Automatic annotation (TrEMBL):
Keywords (A to Z) from UniProt: Cell membrane, Endosome, Glycoprotein, Immunity, Immunoglobulin domain, Innate immunity, Lysosome, Membrane, Signal, Transmembrane, Transmembrane helix
Residue intervals passing through the bilayer: 303-325
Species in which this protein is naturally found: Loxodonta africana (African elephant)
Biological function: Antigen-presenting protein that binds self and non-self glycolipids and presents them to T-cell receptors on natural killer T-cells.
GO molecular function: cell adhesion molecule binding; endogenous lipid antigen binding; exogenous lipid antigen binding; lipopeptide binding
GO biological processes: antigen processing and presentation, endogenous lipid antigen via MHC class Ib; antigen processing and presentation, exogenous lipid antigen via MHC class Ib; innate immune response; positive regulation of T cell mediated cytotoxicity; positive regulation of T cell proliferation
Protein name: CD1d molecule
Length: 337
């Protein structure tokens, strides 16, 4: 009973400190990269992502959109998927033609590189928001806002001209609205439902420590590696006791080849201040069981070894005495009888 109580009490702080993952929005994003190298050479490639998972790819050389996950058609029937694909096939042809015409009209120099990011963010509770942004050489120039094309705030004058031309095309604006307002959120809801098991996948992180190149005389760079986790949100912090070390430096979360993630978190400390440092990892796959790794520097190890070296012979000695005493006592007790 007392043991149970103790367990409960010691378990409580961990329950309170539990790492809650907020209910997640899903963003479906299509990225299009188009390079117009000269008047006769161009290519367009597209990628589709649902959150951190790549779902689709469409190379310039292919007529069909490639599925990268078995559930990438979402809830669409084969017929509905073919219809959607045709819309994009027509779009790709007209995009190439229109851009080439516009470049000719504006007498703009090649090469021109265009990036388009379009899609929608769907709230599991039902609402959604769509977006379509166009950038040139990585700088935003144009976006679709509600019912109209709008130039980006810093866009050059030629973009304003293009925007006026685009806004005259009612047919295209209607298609864009229907794709953004209706098709995208419906498609994403279908994807979320069919891909549930992949999207809710949980992979536990592994963590290990190492030391990096010394940042300066008398200083050490402690490195905490966390790898193999999924999904992407993770909390990693260097701690001294219960104190978060605020100068912890967090790297970028990088992809592993097996669709899990890797993160490196470092701390620059004076060599004399390493006692009691640990790296703490919280992740949804771990529940309340945070990973805590203590920094055991050489001096700690040798102190441990010294204690071990003194303690073990001492214990053996005590045990030997005890056995000898016990046998002696028993035999002398027998002698008495
Ligand atoms: C266009 O660019 C491609 C690829 O760089 C090149 O092979 C081709 O000769 C160029 N064509 C013209 C007309 O400049
Ligand atoms: C890309 O596709 C277009 C249209 O299908 C084609 O005209 C063009 O030559 C292709 N570009 C390359 C580099 O293969
Ligand atoms: C989730 O998406 C909705 C609209 O789709 C948006 O209003 C809301 O701010 C988003 N929530 C988060 C946490 O991003
Ligand atoms: C699409 O959504 C925007 C708001 O995001 C709205 O202004 C517009 O009227 C909608 N268009 C259609 C056809 O539903």
């Amino acid at each position: 009973m007392e043991f149970l109580l103790l367990l409960l009490v010691s378990g409580l702080p961990q329950v309170w400190g539990r790492y809650e993952v907020p209910p997640e929005n899903f963003t479906f994003r299509v990225l299009q990269i188009s390079s117009f190298v000269n008047s006769s050479w161009m290519r367009t490639d597209c990628l589709g992502w649902l959150g951190e998972l790549q779902t689709h790819r469409w190379n310039n050389d292919s007529d069909t959109i490639l599925c990268l996950l078995p559930w990438c058609h979402g809830g669409l029937s084969e017929q509905q998927w073919q219809k959607l694909q045709r819309v994009f096939q027509v779009y790709r042809i007209s995009f190439k033609r229109d851009v080439q015409e516009i470049l000719k009209m504006l007498r703009k120099d090649y090469p021109v590189e265009l990036q388009i990011s379009a899609g929608c963010e769907v709230d599991p509770r039902g609402s959604s928001e769509s977006f379509l942004h166009i950038a040139s050489e990585g700088v935003d120039i144009l976006s679709f806002q509600g019912t109209l094309w709008e130039p980006a705030p810093e866009a050059p004058p030629w973009v304003h001209m293009v925007t006026r031309v685009l806004n005259l095309d009612e047919g295209t604006k209607e298609t864009v609205q229907s794709l953004l307002n209706d098709t995208c959120p419906q498609f994403v809801r279908g994807l979320i439902e069919v891909g549930k098991s992949d999207l809710e996948k949980q992979e536990k992180p592994k963590a290990w420590l190492s030391s990096g190149p010394s940042p300066g005389p008398g200083r050490l760079l402690l490195v905490c590696h966390v790898s193999g986790f999924y999904p992407k949100p993770v909390w990693v912090m260097w701690m001294r006791g219960k104190q978060e070390q605020l100068d912890t430096q967090r790297g970028d979360v990088l992809p592993n080849a097996d669709k899990t993630w890797y993160l490196r978190v470092t701390l620059d400390v004076a060599a004399s201040e390493m006692a009691g440092l640990s790296c703490r990892v919280k992740h949804s796959s771990l529940g309340d069981q945070d990973i805590v790794l203590y920094w055991a520097d050489e001096s700690h190890v040798s102190v441990g070894l010294i204690i071990l070296a003194v303690l073990v012979p001492l214990l053996l000695l005590v045990a030997g005495f005890y056995l000898w005493f016990k046998r002696h006592w028993t035999s002398s007790a027998q002698d008495v009888r």
